[in-house]
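## retry 2 of 3
previous attempt timed out at serialization; input unchanged, resubmitting
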Amino acid sequence: MSRWRSLRWQIAALVAVASGVVALAVGVLVHQSTLERSLALGRDRALTALLAGPADPGPLPAELTARLGGPGTFATWYDDRDPDVPWMWAADDTGAVKIDMGGDLRNLRALDRHIVLASAGVLGLVVPLAALAAELPNRRLRRVARTARRIAEGDLEARTSAGRGGDEITGIAAAVDTMAAALHDRLRAEQRFTADVAHELRTPLMGLVTSAELLPDGEVTELVRDRVGVLRVLVENLLEISRLDAGAESADRVAVPLGGFARDCVHRTGLTAEVTVHGDPIAETDPRRLDRILANLVVNAHRHGNGPVEVRVAGTTITVRDHGPGFPEPLLAEGPQRFRTGTSERGRGHGLGLTIATGQARVIGARLSFANAPGGGAVATVRLN
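## retry succeeded, writing output
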């Protein structure tokens, strides 16, 4: 967010505008009141001079003549045709006088300057004070926003520590903390359920694997063994996800030559991929977890995309690309979700491969991102630290 678009400076700008409007209104009222008072005093002085004895000020202005009535009447007129040398006229049927109002005009202009200077001084004091006063609630709001971002990134232990108070910011902070606690409880319940289901399935699954191996060879037996194998992989994946969700995994880092490692990893998958290596990059990482990440990405590219599958190693960045329909928009927007495979053209599966890859990348401190290539195809990028 731009500094000048922050709530702090918006409050300061609002205070400045409000103070300016008040200063302008007060200045206009004071100016008008002082002007009317000066005109009233000028008329009194002119009438007093007229009663003392009319002088010969020269030809009477048409505006003053028009104001004169019959015998015994008098009239006054403020002559500001020359804005720097104003006069106050008074006349009756016997004569007329005019009083110099230049001194009053200069006093009025000096008063206007003093009002402007005083208003500017007050604004120069009020605006910084308003900005300082707005900093405390602004800081509290920033803390709430940081906590909300941490929660959105998966840190459900984050709390705002709102403290006591009855204002709206405290209410928002308390609501964020309550939401985080509720999400944390739901996620933990889901993780426990996943782990319990996977553990409970292992025993009967081992029995199925053993029974399938004892069946006589044949087409039906191969089909049963294939399905049992799929089920075994699913259960193992669920167990791995439960361990990753529980934060029970840690990385064992060693120096890994990424070029040869990528080639060996692709070879172990039994799938084809064009491996391109730039230079001789080496990274400090956990080779077992990196192998899991890269293998899942290559398998996902073959299962859900089209060939050729390309693996490119440049520095500490590994990119896996296929030439299929690309990743679905929900995955690009929200990231991999377990048991969600996206659109039908991306193939079939349980949606666990990318979820596991994302979890393992988090363990080794890598960044795993997903995108679609401009020319078509899905692109998964692993950036090692």
